[in-house]
Design goal:
This protein is mostly beta strands. The chain contains no helices and ten strands. β5 and β6 form a beta hairpin. The chain is globular.
Length: about 110
């Protein structure tokens, strides 16, 4: 079965950190660029970050640049998003997806609140 499964979300105070994981199965993970996107209730999708297939190139949205770090472990078929200096406006459902949008995870909720 082709799937992406996110984990690592939760409740954190402003200024805190979380590390999201996205476990891939059923397809050639190491051949695909991967992205993280997020969505708040009633709002559109916001692209967060991209990493190419071998992990050598990364890109970030302006709202997270300098605070978030995307990485991947192709041996473990896993994508990561290290989120530091979290702000209340980072509260969203976070999804991992293949760069072409062919496969999506179910999402993991991140809530930043004091």
């Amino acid at each position: 079965e082709v799937q992406l499964v996110e984990s690592g979300g939760g409740l954190v105070q402003p200024g805190g950190s979380l590390r999201l994981s996205c476990a891939a199965s059923g397809f050639g993970f190491s051949s695909h660029g991967m992205t993280w996107v997020r969505q708040a209730p009633g709002k559109g999708l916001e692209w967060v970050s991209y990493i190419n297939s071998d992990g050598n190139s990364t890109y970030y949205g302006d709202s997270v640049k300098g605070r978030f770090t995307i990485s991947r472990d192709n041996a473990k078929n896993t994508l990561y998003l290290q989120m530091n200096s979290l702000k209340t406006e980072d509260t969203d459902m976070y999804y991992c997806a293949t760069a072409g949008g062919y496969v999506w995870g179910q999402g993991t909720q991140v809530t930043v609140s004091s």
